[in-house]
Amino acid sequence: MRRELAVVPASGGMDSCVTVALAAREYSLALLHLNYGQRTETRELQAFNDIADFCQAEHRLVISMEHLASIGGSSLTDRSIPVSLAALRSKGIPTSYVPFRNANSLSAAVSWAEVPEASAVSIGAAEEDSSGYPDCRREFYRAFQEVVRVGTKPTSGITILTPVIGMQKDEIVRTGIALGAPLHLSWSCYQREDIGRAICDSCALRLRGFQRAGVEDPVQYEQRPLYT
Amino acid sequence: MRRELAVVPASGGMDSCVTVALAAREYSLALLHLNYGQRTETRELQAFNDIADFCQAEHRLVISMEHLASIGGSSLTDRSIPVSLAALRSKGIPTSYVPFRNANSLSAAVSWAEVPEASAVSIGAAEEDSSGYPDCRREFYRAFQEVVRVGTKPTSGITILTPVIGMQKDEIVRTGIALGAPLHLSWSCYQREDIGRAICDSCALRLRGFQRAGVEDPVQYEQRPLYT
């Protein structure tokens, strides 16, 4: 029997890498990557394609959302705003927050999902370790599911899945390893494309996750501060 | 006192033209146009710019959302799907439905609104005369408001406004005329860019609106069938 299709937005980072691996257990994969003028786009796109190849994704689509760059308001897209350094316990919203990015990402994913009648969109948002992004929280996805229910064709029936939303990064690492997810192909650094600097929020969360899981992160870094 | 800012997604059609005029009474205007590879994009963009000039919009942004074209699934973006002819009483979803387009549009509008701290996004969706698009209904915008509330910075406080959602097209025409909205600069035909064919859904709804309002539509058409 032909498997159902899931659209998975994938940045190429660790969380989406594991989300792809989780989706691959049940669905044929339609992987979606957004280019929105982020600093490390070239490296992220490479990670996306490497992961798509590894997982033998049936479909892939790379979307340009350069309006998120022209709008600015984030250190990921505006070179004049510095990337927040690791602040793992901060409750504020870091400069890397791209305004409402995940709504843009999900909207594109649902548009794509409606055409081939995919049954799910699975996104790798993680709430507890999410650096404080408002669009990484459970309530955002719950609300978005309702938008999808009322805003698509009645026959579409697309479910928004957030399989890692309740996981800490160490659990994401352990899950990825258990599934054989290609974590060695993922990329998380917000600052560099050749080697992780290990000092941005994203690197710090990732490294701490590997450290807490007791596993060495296969990605190369300039340094490996102890974040546990 | 400086007026608050509203982002208004504007296709260049009649409904968004009147929505711009309504917003201009209270807000400074940030007008947003989406190019998504639709058949009549050149003409729509001209209408958008003409309306923005006429209303002296403070900001304007034209966004390319070509993924909606590459995704397809609509007669507006896929030349192999014929544009639905006027079917004013049909309850089905016409071929011109662009999957989840208004969620993409609203997401971009909210991203833009967050950066300069706009207080509203006002969109010209009309429910009753909407050709049956699921993303033109009140419940879609109510659900999206909740996504905005939980998915943006707590300080953003962006309100989604749908000032014409309950209006029939004739009321939109009358409102536009009362406000001096530049209806002569708007463009609605889904098929042609030089002169309205007057046989697509969009032309038929527009013409019927003018006819019911007892006003001559200032736009040129090949023919003017009686749609009342």
Mass-distribution shape of chain A: globular
Tell me the radius of gyration of chain A. 17 Å
Secondary-structure element series of chain A: EHEHEHHEHEHH
In the CATH hierarchy, the third-tier topology of chain A is known as Rossmann fold
Most residues in contact, chain pair and counts? A-B, 44 and 44 residues
**Low-confidence regions of chain A:** none
Q: What is the percent of helical residues of chain A?
A: 25-40%
Please sum up the structure shown.
Chain A is α/β, with parallel strands linked by helices.
Task: Describe this protein's structure.
The structure is a homodimer of 228-residue chains. Chain A is an alpha/beta fold and 228 residues long. Chain A has a single domain, classed as Rossmann fold (3-Layer(aba) Sandwich), CATH 3.40.50.620. Helices cover 36% and strands 11% of the residues of chain A. In chain A, strands 3-2-1-4-5 form a 5-stranded parallel β-sheet, with helices on both faces. In chain A, helix 1 packs across helix 6 and helix 6 packs across helix 7. The longest helix of chain A is centred in the N-terminal third of the chain and has 14 residues. Chain A starts with a strand and ends in a 15-residue tail after the last helix. The model of chain A has no long low-confidence stretch (mean pLDDT 88). Chains A and B meet through strand 3, helix 3, helix 4 and helix 5 of A and strand 3, helix 3, helix 4 and helix 5 of B.
